[in-house]
Structures are given as structure tokens and as C-alpha cells.
Amino acid sequence: MKDVVPDASSHPQSPGKTVPEYMRTKNKNQKVEQLKRQQRGKITLNKSDIAQIQSEFQAQLDMNKPKKLGNTGITLRYDASINAPVLEK
Cβ distance 52 to 27 under 8 Å? Predict the structure, then answer.
């Protein structure tokens, strides 16, 4: 005869598998994370990167005005010389 283990999530005082908000990892953009680890640099972005960065930092890409990404020291801007959006530190 097998022992039946009750589902822990149904128990009202169960520790469960909830993770506090401050410990949750966000789906962060890898190019931003890469640039954070570097002293300086410039990385070209694709449409997917831009959408993810805009969502994470509430920053809109403006062709004429660079936008700082929080307190990361990284700037989102449009580079006319290569005709593409870039992250720069």
C-alpha cells in the first residue's frame, strides 16, 4: 500500500513555494546586464531588445534625445552613424 502525501499547497499554513517579490528574478535584458559588468562600451540593439528595455525601464527610444536607464550608468540612444539604436556606457 502506498502512502498518500497531501498536497502542500492545500494546507492553510503551508510554507508553499512562494518567493518574496524582492527575491524574484526578472527577465532582464542580457545586453543591459553585459554592459553593466563592463567599464564602458556600446552595444547595438534589435527590436526585441528595445521592447524588453522599454518595458523594464519605462524608457522610450527617441531619435533625438538619449535616455538614461535608471541608475545603471547606461544610455539608450539612436546612433545615426550606424543607423541603429544602441546602449552606451
Answer: yes
Domain range summary for the chain, segments of one domain joined by +: 39-89
Q: Give pLDDT tens digits for 15-25.
A: 556 766 665 55
Kindly tell me the sign of the dihedral angle through the C-alpha atoms of 47, 49, 50, 54: positive
Cα angle at 52 between 47 and 56, to 5 degrees?
150
8-state DSSP, 19: -
pTM: 0.67
Confidence tier at 26 by pLDDT (50, 70, 90): low
Q: What is the gyration radius of the CA atoms in the chain, in angstroms?
A: 21
pLDDT-derived band at 59 (thresholds 50, 70, 90) equals confident
C-alpha grid cell for residue 42? 556600446
Q: How far apart are CA 21 and CA 58, in angstroms?
A: 19
